[in-house]
Amino acid sequence: MGTADAPRVGAAVRRRRRALDLTLAEVAGRSGLSAPFLSQIENDRARPSMRSLQRIADALETTAVQLFAASDETRAVDVVRASDDSGLDGAAQVRPVVRGRHQLHALEFVGEHDADREFRHRNDELVYVADGSVEVEAEGQVHRLGRGDTLLLSGGIRHRWRTTGPGTRVLVVAVGDHVEVVES
């Protein structure tokens, strides 16, 4: 899929910013990105790297996954083709494999990903390594995962992850933060 067809997060960023009653300058101050660059993103004239998108999500008190989900139309039946890539700039490519606002979110990460950001999700998350290798740090332990390995993280667990091998492809599936999980 070409750049022109790549999913755009601009409208989702703008909606979230307005919902928090923030100006572009305030989001720029929180994220460390420039207001003109944020304006270009909101108007889909620029695509952020995954790192920039995470900085924007942090500034907007949400996650990149939530911004991806909010950027796509929700469909009851939706096929996402392997050729559908997000076209994000940077070393890591990210492709939503579930589009729209559903009870679960899924993203495929291809390429390098570093552990510079800590995550903590309200609900459960599953990490599956399709190719390559990753290290996931959770609750003071480092878990080394290779091709075919999975790791389940219960909701509320602080974690970070990074790729440790070339050609890494990771699928991350999470129950949406908007879903209230009732324990039986």
From TrEMBL:
Q: Which InterPro entries match?
A: Cro/C1-type_HTH (IPR001387), Cupin_2 (IPR013096), Lambda_DNA-bd_dom_sf (IPR010982), RmlC-like_jellyroll (IPR014710), RmlC_Cupin_sf (IPR011051), TransReg_Diox_bact_type (IPR050807)
Keywords of this entry: DNA-binding
PROSITE patterns recorded for this chain?
HTH_CROC1
Q: For the HTH cro/C1-type domain, which residue ranges apply?
A: 13-67
Q: Which SUPFAM superfamilies match?
A: lambda repressor-like DNA-binding domains, RmlC-like cupins
By what name is this protein known? XRE family transcriptional regulator
